[in-house]
Amino acid sequence: MKKIAFLLVMAMVLTMCAFAVSCTPATPAESSAPAASSEEPAPAASSEEPAPAASSEEPAPAESSEEPAPAESSEEPSEEPSEEPSEDNSSAGLEKPKNLSDFFVTACDPASEGEGQGFICTTADIAGGWSHHIGFAPVEGNEGFWEVVAVSDGSGGAASAIAIPENGFVFCINAGNNWPELMKDKKGDGASGAWYDDEQHLHMPNMNTQYAQDAFAFGASVSVGEIYYIEGFDIDAFEVPTSTPDKDYWDPDYKVTAKIGLVK
């Protein structure tokens, strides 16, 4: 019996010791629980206060600072000025051409058309069908520059008079005839049947001078819309532009002083 009682006591003692042992480690295990709850790195996730870095996407205001868009509207000024000058280009900034030719003008508003003559009309175009008719209008803001506004070609004898441009003139050019050449085998008695076979034409000079030929060729080449520069010629205070006023315009020694050149 005593032995049994001793064994029971020992068993109880061992049981209590085992219980004490099992209870004692429990406390450290709980202290390791904080390690699990030391998921306080999670605040690092909630310290997604880098999210402010996302909101520090206050470069986004830089997107709204795409108020460079006003810079697009600021393109408007650059367009407007560039358009205005282009409008002025037709009437400003013209330059004198480098190549100038003789401007064969022998009279202003003559009473009748002269053969082999270049003349200007400021009141009415009196030239006939065998003359070139060129209407010149002044280019605003450019003294000495004239624009071709009308043309009637007399190459085939079918030209017609044109209206005088405002503040401008009509330049008429008649090629003339080389009468000595035409009459060389005629006697001026009408025997040939030619309408000009008479005494008057028998003694006429060559009216188809080099000046007349060049001026007539010029008249055939002119087109509406072209701009020419003319110097040595004053339409308001007209004087025949020549250095040989004592000579007839068909004289081989006649000299022209006015010049003309194509600008564009």
Report what the structure shows.
With 264 residues, the chain is an alpha+beta fold. It has a domain at 101-175 and 207-262. The protein has 9 helices and 8 strands. Strands 1-8-7-5-4-6-3-2 form an 8-stranded mixed beta sheet, covered by helices on one side. Strand 4 and strand 5 (145-152) form a beta hairpin. Residues 17-90 have low confidence and may be disordered.
Provide a compact summary of the structure.
The protein has 264 residues and is α+β, with helices and mostly antiparallel strands.
> How much is the average pLDDT?
77
Major sheet details = 8 strands, mixed
Question: What is the rounded Rg?
Answer: 54 Å
Query: Strand tally, please?
Result: 8
Low-pLDDT residue intervals, each spanning 5 or more residues: 17-90
Q: What is the approximate shape?
A: elongated
SSE pattern: HHHHHHEEEEEEHHHEE
Distance between the termini: 144 Å
Look at the helices and sheets and give the structural class.
alpha+beta
Put simply, the count of helices is 9
What proportion strand?
5-15%
- Order of neighbouring strands in the sheet with most strands: 1-8-7-5-4-6-3-2
Helix content: 25-40%
Q: Which oligomerization state do the chains in this entry correspond to?
A: single chain
